[in-house]
Every structure is written in C-alpha cells, then in structure tokens.
Amino acid sequence: MSKPIREGLFTSGGDPRLLGSHCGHCGGRHFPRIDTCPNCGTPSPQDCELPPRGRLWAWTTVTAAPPGYEGPVPYGFGVVELDDGPRVITRLTEADAAALSAGQPMHLVLTAVSGPGDDEVVSWAFAPGDGAS
Amino acid sequence: MTAVSVAGVGIHPFGRFEDRTTTDLGVVAVRDALDDAGIRGRDLQAAFCGTAYGGVASGHKVLGRLAATGIPIVDVEAGCASGAAALMLAASTVASGQYDTVLAFGLEKMPKGIIRSSFFEPWQEAAGLGSTPAYFALRAQRLMATSGITDGDLAAVVTKNRRHGAANPDAMFRSEVAAADVLASRMVCPPLRLWMLCSPNEGAAAAVLRRSTGAAGEVRVAASVLTSHLPGSVLSESTPLSGLADDSIPAPTERAAALAYEEAGVGPADLDLVECQDTDAARELLSCEELGLCESGGVADLLRSGATALGGPIPVNVSGGLISKGEPLGASALGQVVELVRQLRGAAGGRQVGGARLGLAHTIGRGANASVVILQR
Asked: Residue A94 sits in which domain range?
C-alpha cells in the first residue's frame, strides 16, 4: 500500500491528476493549491484538476541525493508545460538527460520516492509520451 | 538626500577555517574596515549584519568584541543578497540624515556540500525537489537554448574567473584551470559540472559608510537597491512549484538594475567593471544579460569577444567571482563591495582594472532577492 508524499497535491490511482487552483479573475492556473492567486492577488481561487499531459520545457538529472532525500538516484528533474499553460516543476521518470528533447510530449505518473525498506511513498512525476497505451 | 561614501572596507578571506568561529571571521573583517576608515568601534552609530546561517545576534557577538555596542545592531537575512540588504539599510540611514557613520557587514560559515536551508519544506526535500544545483541546471539549459551558449562557453567563464582569482589573495581557489579539465570534471546536473559550480564556504566582509564630505577621491554609493521577485516565473529563485507560460516576466535582477541605473544616473555602457552572481558559470552569463551588459540573447558574443575578461571593455568578476572565492552567503555581496572599492582606489594589484571609476556589484538568490550596488569615484 503506497501513500502520497503529502495530502492534497494529487489524486492517486491509475489515472492521477495534479490538484491546482484556477483564478477566475486573471485565468492563472497554479500548482499546488493556494489561498490567493500569486499573479493578481485575488483571494480564494477555485480548486481544479490540472491536465495530466504537456510538453517538456526544461530538464536535467539529479546525480547525488539532495539533503533530506532518501529515494533512488539518479533521477530526472525538470519543468513540463501543461496543455493549458502552467509550467510545473516535476521529477521525470527518465534520468538520462540525453534521452529527452525539448517540446516532447509528457504525461503524469506517480513514482516511488521512499528509501529501501520503508513503506512506499509516492510523488508526482512526468514520463515521456502521451500516456496512451 | 545626503550623499553616502564608503569610508573603509575590510575582509576576512573566503575559504574554509576549521579553527575559527563565525564571530572570529567577522571581527577580522570589521576591524579591518574600521582601521581603513580611521575610526574605532565606538564611533559607529548603527550596524547591519548580513547572515543566513549565523544564528541569533550574530552581529552583536562581533561588535561586542570591538567595543561597538550600545547602538542599533540588526541582523539581516536575504539569501545570497543578505550583505547587500545590510548595505542598503545602512546606506539609507545615512542618506536620510539619521546617522553619519554606520557599518554594513556580513559573515558566514556555510555547511559543506549542497546548500541546505530551511527554505524547502521537509516533504519537498523528501520528494527530491530540494536539489539546488538542479534548479541552476534548468536555468542554465534554458539560457543555452535561448542565447546559443555551448558547454565550451560555460567552461570559458570558469577559466576566466579562475584566472582572475589567481591574482586575488582573498579567494579560496587561487590557481588557473584549463577548459578541458573543467569539461572533464564530474557531471553534477547536466549541463553543469562540478567545476562550473561555486563552493559554499566561509568568510566575512565589511564596509564603513559615512556622510559624504565631497573630498576628491572619495568612493560614493551611487545606488544600493534590493528587490524581490515578481510572481509567475517557474524558474525564479523563489523556486515555486509552478509558473505561467509567460517569458516576459522581468527577473528580479532586471528590476534591481533598472532602479539602480536610474538612481545613479548611469547606464551599463558607463560601467568600468562588474562583480556579478556566478553561483554557476551559466548564472554569470544570465546575470550579464539581465544587467544589460549586452542585448538579451547576446551574451555568447560578449563572452567570446573577451569583453568580460580583465583588459576587456567591461571586465566581469575580476575578483575571481564566487567560482574562485566561494560563496559565504551573508558575506558574499559585501565581498563584492570590498573588491569594487579596492578597484576604484586603484589598489587591486595584479587584477587592477585601469582607471576604474564606476563599478557595479550584483547578487541574486533565495527569496528571491536581487541586489545591485553601484559605486562611483
């Protein structure tokens, strides 16, 4: 049984979604959910689910475990621009930077970030492709 | 507004000093600055101390050893811009007429390895989202794509700064390196290799500010600006988890530079030298663009022309930059100020920029905070 790294960030299951906010005033979409739109200052933006697909905008590889992280290394790390605009910081399932290219389709998955022996903890990540099987 | 001058500067070399406390480092830098200004600790009317890791009352502990207490002493934290934040506050108390003689200083002993701070939430660290060099790498990759930067250009920044740093006795790394060795160093986060990243370390720096007397040869604070970020940019140093699909949001450095140029009544073409944030090699190039040293997208030509090397028209990081000096967060910005003052006095030895009259110092980091200081002789 896996548990999310933090409640309220994403839905679990086979077809996950990131949980964000949509500002009715400026139209900005944000991840994670927030109390006040950071762009225009409008309070109480609406909860929304963000599109699970987008395109790769920037990427690298984390080769050494950063402080406070006990999961596997190396791992991919980057920014995916979702289909309706927001750019999201994310882990990538592909750790080889040379295997990725700008603008390629990516889709949301959940990935284990726990250390060996721990109960499985999952976080969001994006994987190459549009996710259609 | 009262004109503000830099009456004295002091520095404790940047490096690793196992046998000295943070306070020890600060005492050396502040005593040097007081001596340089020809005053004693009790002549100070206020003091502002930049530090991110120093802990409670860092400034008091230093000034207590120099008989300089009984005045307002305020510790200031603004990430990599902490020292510049201290300078801005100190300068504003003189400019407003509140005080005549004040101190801005900064000190730090950084933990070794990847910088860990309370900035990231524990869950972000556990999710693998707390890798500082990975964020640097994403910024570097974007700049390489938009400005046509190559791996060789990144290495050229390192060889330039290490060459400059070899002439700076206060730098941690004082040897030149070859581009091939930079490109053979361990890959940390592509495209950034180990030697392209600055090392967090230890050090202190200080500047005594005084109401300007108008004397010939005086170094004046022409501008001291600090700003935070505007929201919306996913790769902002505020490290949000999302941002807008909008590339037109001005970076904090661009905003700080615009305000500083306006305050000083100068433009980037007037500058004789620049000390800028080179936490990694790509960051120096991005800083050059954001400071307006070239057109947006034009930094590859600027670098390859040799313009930013000592002897070129706009030398950048003649101190060796953070790549040679290392980065003690709270002291970093004031270390730049020490370098500019030495350069403007013509006292920079083997790395002297001939005839330097106008210099700019820049930092950008966590918060996000950006600082731009312009000094003029």
From this structure: 52-133
